[in-house]
Design brief:
With 801 residues, the chain is α+β, with helices and mostly antiparallel strands. It has 19 helices and 28 strands. The strands form 6 sheets. The protein has a 6-stranded mixed sheet with strand order 8-7-6-9-10-11, with helices on both faces. A 6-stranded antiparallel sheet has the order 19-18-28-27-24-25, with no helix packed on it. Helix 16 (566-601) runs antiparallel to helix 17 (612-626). The radius of gyration is 39 Å and the shape is elongated.
């Protein structure tokens, strides 16, 4: 009985010690290290997984925590909000560890190692492969020659076993080291031809493609032994360390796992020490390339050393939680951790993209209808917003600025006995408020009575006019027509968004993969960053095609004043397709720039600013494409397009951070704001350039510049310039001696509906742009730089700001 009691006591004591040891480890947790994330889509089971390590106060990994301790003591919040317990699962990763997909391991095995040792190495490397994503581990051998590096995965590793049984007579040690170092870089060296390689040897370019993206996550494991002396070869130790010391290319950290059963070869030991601690030309240690030299005469210890290095690159725990059905992710998500109620750290990861929020869920017909109804309401609200800006806010600000600057109390001038108002013809008394915009000083009341302009404006005054709001005319059909280009752009954006949604927010996945593969090899397909880049690029291409096409279609339709016959429609549609392809190409180039920036930055997610070049390039390209065979001014399109793209981009990324439930709304706002802004610029910028001139090109009046804007103005005053022989014309061609000029030959005016200057022939013989004679009575649009001929005189039309 006593023996039984003693046995029970001992068992309880051991259990107590184990429990207290685990509890002590739990109490030592001081920091959480968020390492990576992945998100998976499955209908009704959308989930996000966070990979993390737990550290003590010294920064050492705490790996002996139990699932119960993690569940009881650890709390992880998403954007400061608790994640419900019934939606999460905390566990060890892959029996304790997982390797980030950014790592590249090249394993080089010495075939002179005894067979029993090679079998143990085979089994240990198998555990590495089990813990690593596919594409992380590459295997090669050296002996009689150096073999090509093969990517090994869970599915194909078993076919590598027979290679471990190969025996070799030689041991080309430096060839093995040098060739595997070379594979981490794209460049070649003069020593390449000295390497003793097998027939058909191929340098594995996937290693270099992957290594250059993560220069600090590249490791070369060298398994070798010291009982057999290296064979003589042309390559020497200095060649290896010289290559390692050059900073012009990527060099992995070398982990030398040295093993011997019988005796020891000192030269190998010294070599391994040297290559594990590379130095620059000045003899200083290159710390970021420093590896480890780990010798042992016990293969079990060698393999433990190997697992220790691998363990440093692994994740210990995972935190998986189900995504709330109301959530949409298109932003950077912040995570924070608490251990026993104390903050222990935070991290952030991008999930989804602004253009293609995650997840894209199946929608009920009623939900789809409701979404499009909301979108329609938002579109009308945007039209109202732009209308208020263009017709209320801007005129109000201009009017107030004008009043501050030009509404002054009258102070009698020296040597002026009296000043008469040009409108009411009454004396202006000292202290009365007057308008001093032009030399025709008026009472403020009279100025406002005359429609906020000078009594002489349009005849003897060029500048006396004030922008203002005519409330009684504000909500008329003509007022709405003033914004027709803006409304057209918003409608084009709305149509583009509808098709964008119907196409699944991206329909060029194959082409997108080809673009992204230029920077990220196919072996990185398992990474979330790769998928983010592909999805984003697919969205880019779709946006470029749709928005480019519909903006061009609707603006060219408005710009084309001819009868819309089949030929004209062919021109409109053809040029719109061209603009769509140009927009798509611009976004493709922008996607390349984005990937280039990501590779330079080395991030694991896509920062917002990496997308900006794509939007700017798209805007510039599409804006210029809109001017092809149209009257749209290049400067107006370019300036308006850039401003609209920037505003739309800011709205897109700000709204994607703030809106967690309706990812579709962010892109809708971007589409309609860009379209509306571009449309507004095609009117506003043109209206701001209301200084119109005719320059006589030949004859006795050659070089004379006639300011026709004093008779013709889009915002008030007169709106007609007649050219002919009679004195009633604003421009009397009395210098013409021929009888080719009629009494009133042409008329110039602003078309209020189209907000464009027009030329209307009233007699025959008007030659336009030195080519065609214009038909009588049919107005033609005047663009900056056009010329027309009346009689023997050529007029050049100019616009300036």
């Amino acid at each position: 009985m006593d023996k039984t009691k003693k046995m029970i006591f001992r068992v309880l004591t051991v259990m107590g010690l184990l429990f207290s040891s685990g509890l002590l480890k739990a109490q030592n947790v001081a920091e959480i290290q968020f390492c990576d994330r992945k998100y998976e889509y499955e209908i009704g089971k959308d989930s996000i997984t966070l990979f993390f390590n737990m550290l003590d106060k010294y920064g050492n990994r705490v790996q002996e925590l139990t699932p119960e301790q993690l569940e009881n003591y650890l709390v992880i919040k998403e954007d400061g909000e608790f994640i419900p317990q019934d939606q999460l699962e905390i566990s060890f990763v892959n029996s304790g560890q997982r390797i980030p997909s950014e790592y590249t391991f090249s394993v080089l095995v010495d075939l002179s190692i005894p067979q029993s040792g090679k079998e143990q190495i085979y089994n240990t490397v198998a555990r590495l492969i089990e813990s690593a994503p596919d594409s992380c581990v590459y295997l090669s051998f050296f002996g009689d020659n150096v073999t090509s590096s093969s990517v090994v995965t869970k599915s194909n590793y078993k076919y590598q076993k027979e290679k471990f049984s190969i025996q070799s007579e030689n041991k080309y040690f430096y060839s093995g080291l040098y060739s595997k170092l070379l594979e981490f870089s794209d460049n070649s060296t003069a020593k390449d031809s000295l390497i003793k390689v097998e027939n058909g040897y191929v340098k594995n370019t996937s290693i270099a493609n992957k290594a250059k993206l993560n220069t600090d996550k590249n490791i070369l494991f060298v398994f070798t032994e010291g009982s057999k002396r290296p064979s003589d070869e042309d390559l020497i130790f200095n060649d290896v360390v010289e290559y390692q010391g050059a900073l012009s290319h990527v060099v992995p950290k070398v982990i030398a796992l040295y093993y011997t059963e019988e005796g020891e070869e000192p030269s190998i030991e010294n070599t391994l020490k040297g290559i594990c601690a590379p130095r620059n030309l000045n003899g200083n240690l290159i710390s970021e390339r420093e590896g480890k030299y780990m010798p042992s005469n016990d293969m079990v210890q060698v393999l433990k050393n190997f697992e220790e290095v691998v363990n440093d690159a692994m994740y210990d725990f995972s935190f998986k939680y189900k995504v709330d059905e109301s959530q949409n992710y298109s932003r950077i998500v912040k995570y924070s951790g608490e251990w026993k109620g104390t903050d222990i750290g935070n991290g952030e990861f991008s999930i989804g993209t602004a253009e293609r929020s995650w997840p894209i869920r199946e929608e009920k017909a009623s939900d789809v209808a409701l979404k499009y109804l909301y979108a329609l309401i938002i579109t009308f609200a945007t039209i109202a917003f732009f209308f208020a800006i263009a017709k209320i806010l801007i005129p109000y600000i201009r009017s107030k600025s004008f009043a501050v600057k030009y509404y002054k109390k009258y102070v009698p001038e020296a040597n002026v006995s009296r000043r008469i108002c040009h409108y009411c013809k009454q004396d202006i008394q000292p202290g009365q408020f007057v308008v001093t915009k032009c030399k025709h000083i008026m009472h403020v009341f009279c100025w406002q009575q005359n429609g906020y302009k000078c009594a002489e404006y349009g005849q003897n005054c060029k500048t006396g006019i004030q922008s203002h709001i005519e409330w009684k005319e504000l909500f008329t059909l003509n007022s709405l027509k003033d914004c027709y280009q803006t409304i057209s752009g918003i409608v084009a954006g709305f149509i583009s968004w509808i098709l964008y949604e119907l196409f699944g927010r991206g329909c060029f996945n194959g082409l997108s993969e080809s673009i992204v593969n230029l920077f990220y090899s196919e072996n990185t397909e398992a990474t979330t960053l790769y998928l983010d880049c592909v999805n984003k690029t697919s969205a880019f291409l779709t946006i470029g095609l749709l928005l480019g096409f519909f903006l061009s279609l609707i603006f060219r339709y408005n710009d084309e004043y001819k009868k819309k016959d089949l030929k004209v429609w062919g021109k409109i549609v053809g040029l719109s397709l061209l603009t769509g392809v140009i927009g798509m190409t611009a976004f493709a180039i922008g996607a390349n720039l984005m990937c280039l920036m990501l590779t330079a930055l080395g991030t694991t997610f896509i920062p917002w600013y990496c997308s900006l070049p794509a939007y700017l390039l798209f805007s510039i390209s599409v804006s210029l494409a809109l001017t092809i065979k149209s009257t749209i001014p290049v400067k107006s399109a370019l300036l308006g397009g850039l401003c609209s793209a920037l505003i739309g981009f800011i709205v897109l990324y700000c709204s994607s951070r703030a809106n967690n439930t309706s990812g579709w709304m962010n892109m809708l706002l971007d589409f309609i704001i860009y379209g509306g802004g571009l449309g507004a610029s095609l009117v506003t910028v043109r209206m701001l350039a209301e200084k119109y001139f005719l320059v006589i090109q030949n004859g006795v009046r050659a070089g004379q510049r006639i300011p026709i804007h004093k008779w013709m103005n889009a915002t008030g005053g007169g709106n007609k310039v007649s050219i002919g022989m009679t004195g009633e014309c604003e421009i009397q061609m009395n210098w013409e001696k021929s009888n080719k000029v009629a009494k009133e030959h042409v008329q110039l005016f602003i078309d209020y509906d189209k907000q464009l200057p027009m030329l209307k022939p009233l007699a025959t013989g008007v030659i336009f742009n030195t080519r065609a004679e214009l038909p009588v009575g049919r107005p033609s649009v005047l663009s900056n730089g056009d010329n027309f001929k009346i009689g023997d005189t050529i007029f050049l039309y100019q616009e300036t700001e």
